[in-house]
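Data availability (excerpt). The following record was deposited with the supplementary files.
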Amino acid sequence: MPNRAFHFLSKQAIPLLGEHLTNDEFREHCGNPPKIGHHHRYDPHDIRRVRMALSPGLEKFLAARSLPPVIVAHTSKGGTGKSSVATNMAVAMAMQGWKVCLIDGDAASSGATELLDQQDDEKNLVTLRELLHGKAKPEDAFIPIYENADLDFLPADSEMGRLEIELVAMVGREFMFAEHLMKNQDFYRKYDFIVIDTGPNTSLLNFNFMTAANLILAPLMLDGMGLKAMKSLQNNLNDIQRLTKKAPPVLMVPNGFHSGMKHSLENLALVREHYAGNLSQTVIPSYAGVQRQVRIWDGTATPLVESEPTSPASKAIIDLSREIVDLFVTQPFNKQRKGR
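Predicted structure:
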């Protein structure tokens, strides 16, 4: 069982909700929880309760979807902060009361698995390989990370390398993951978002994730090699377009921005000029806390948004998560309401 939990004061919970409420209004909407010491304490479930009270019909709208949106974090180059961005974004969504399923699809580095401190293979009794072969059910595979937030996690494991080889001989090999989602709709539809971290390569497993994606989230380090990686990603998407007739959209996220570095400023301007239609509104700043997420000296790890939620990088990650929520929840929900 998880032993990690979130506890927020109202001054923290209300910004996570993203609405303009007074402390009394927030407390009233979530049912006046008891005080702990001198203050009311809230958790992500309280935030969700208030959100649903403020948006009648939203819970029904989410439940009516056949599957939640699949957000695949992918670049063809390592070192872009992909695992860090994907994991922290999934945690940020859970902190805000969203129900999130996070899959570590990177067998090589297992960044998400390490950040969530789930690197012990024995904890993961069911593997992605077994899921795609239909030998296990997803309800037996995912690990809940927090006591009072909805983030379920499938860690990476050593079997994924074997799966990559086996996929080559399978019929419909590019669509095995998409098929798995469709066959297990009743399990996955309980989530609001599916987030997948991938390896920095053009493997068949990554191709599976991308053919199932509703959005490719591409962290982009503001250097020359990072810009070249975008061209490689575009080649992957061209292949998907030829195969499926419809490639998922890409959202590029500038990462590691340093306002005091001339090359960082110039490359950000270049990215905005050439990729305006695919560029996130969020720019993630360079921040030393990112390197502190994994503490080698004591063998522990904690995502930045959990350990330092008010840091500049965490605030940017939370903004990014809201950008995704707006795209896949707020806009379609408001459109549905106006169409009635």
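Summary of structural features: The CA atoms of residues 58 and 119 lie 36 Å apart.
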